[in-house]
């Protein structure tokens, strides 16, 4: 299974992935900036409430901007934002976007 780890002691599988839910939400929005949070939540595998909290975190951190367009939201990802962890703080989010979406310059429609 991709992204899964098997423990050597008993052969059981523990669920874990290399990317956090925050990264998955950011990538889902970068791929579809007009997606409903319900659809983002389904894609990522979290509740809609969790997706809302993650989007709020990403907005507060300057990684995402939300614009109201009619009755929907449209999101803009800031590719020049830096990773928060000290080990990767010299890298920009655009590097991750380029790796997984093929586009780091801009994620607007």
TrEMBL record:
Cite a single GO MF annotation. Answer: DNA-binding transcription factor activity
- Specify the HTH marR-type domain's residue ranges: 21-69
Q: Which domain of life is it from?
A: Bacteria
Q: Return any one Pfam family short name.
A: MarR_2
- InterPro entries hit by this protein: HTH_MarR-typ, WH-like_DNA-bd_sf, WH_DNA-bd_sf
> Know the name of this protein?
MarR family protein
